[in-house]
Amino acid sequence: MVKKRLIEVVTISVDDKLDQNGALRNVAVKDAWQRLRQKIDVEEWKAAEKVLNELTMNLQKINMYKSVSGACGKLRNALQNPEQLVDEAEFLSATPTPRDRGDSPQALQAASDLKKTKDELAQFCSCLEKIKASLEKDNQLQDKIEPPPGVAPDIAGSYKALAFICDRCQRGLREIDHLKKRVDNCEARNKELEKHIDEKEEAIDKLTKTVNTLEKKHSTVKEGKIDNIKEQMKMKSLEKQVEAKVAEVNKMRAENANLNKRLNEIKEQRGSELADMYNTHPPARIADLYRELYASGKNDAFQFYKTSMNLPAKDAAVKTMAVLQDAFSFCEEASKLQFGLVLNSLITPTESFDGKQPPHKVDDNDMSQIQNVRKQTSRLSCEHVKNAFVTKLESSGGTYSMDELTGCMAFIEHCVELCWYMCMQTPPLVIGFSDNMKQDIAVDKTKYEIASGKGAKVDFVLWPPLYGQKDGDVISKGVIQTK
Hints:
Layout: H1 2-37, H2 48-78, H3 88-93, H4 105-138, H5 153-278, H6 283-308, H7 313-347, H8 364-376, H9 378-396, H10 402-407, H11 409-423, E1 430-431, E2 448-452, E3 458-463, E4 466-467, E5 474-476, E6 478-482
Parallel strand pairs: 2-6
Antiparallel strand pairs: 1-4, 3-6, 4-5
């Protein structure tokens, strides 16, 4: 009975320990993993290894109690019958003695099982010691933990639990290494940040010193500027006065420019009036005389060629316009010769004139004065030009007969006189002889008037148009006969 009571006490004590350590295991595992996985400060990373060591020690204790629990389970099975009990010494030693050999087979089997269980527990404890030593030495675990062959299922389960715990611990160690690396990186970054902060602080100190220096300078300059403000105000007042004076001067200059412009306009107007005073035959008067020449003098010559010389109307018109063209060409050459002589006499009076216009440069004002003199004396020179042209016709021989000269003398003189006044203008007037010989062309009503005929094409030209200048506007239209 004493032995039975002793075994029950041991069994109950072991069960209590298992219950207590089962709860301890759950609490330890939850606490350890929560502390490892939660967000902690950088200073607390170093405590992770200590937490893992505590977890390892707790797991070692749990596994030992679990192995003892397996052995005690076998004891319960052996103690179901009283006759299977053994004494205290046999239970503790678990080795058969010669006295035991005569016992029952169940007792011998129980003793054998106890001995085997003791050996297996010894091996398990040895495995735990190795794991503990490896953890204490270099904080490493075995890669593979396998139970010895032929062990009891409970012991094999303990080995499997130990292998699972070691695997979890191995993962924890890897996580701890990773965390250590992160901590090292964070520390390195912290050192760099601290260095950067030190540099920034040095820069801030320098800037602070610079700001203090600038503030001192600013205070000094500010004191000086207070004295300059009054001077600046005075300068602004003077500047305003100067601006007002400048504006007044600009206004006076603008008025002066307007006056000069008006004066120039008056001079030009008076100059044109004076030029008109010198010009006894302005272009408008010449245009009127040109139309009168066609209406009166031209008709006399035309009728002479048509009746006295028995020429057709077309040929009579050609002969009449030939007289006008010869007179215009003669007056044009005489005008150029006169201008060359006057210019040469005024600029180079000691040199003889060779009939060509000298290459003298004369400004517009002087040229205008010379032209005015020529216009003013055009009446005097006109008589000489008429006599010279008539003399040329009389001495030409076959160009004009004496009958033509006698019958058309009045028309010839009127042509020379009018053409001379045309050449005296500035610029000279131009007679349009280009269409004289053209036929079967469309009627240009901007240049010609139709004398007779109802057709749309020109039969022959009776009288050429007069232009204000070369390629200029028509100041007196010509006359044509249409088909």
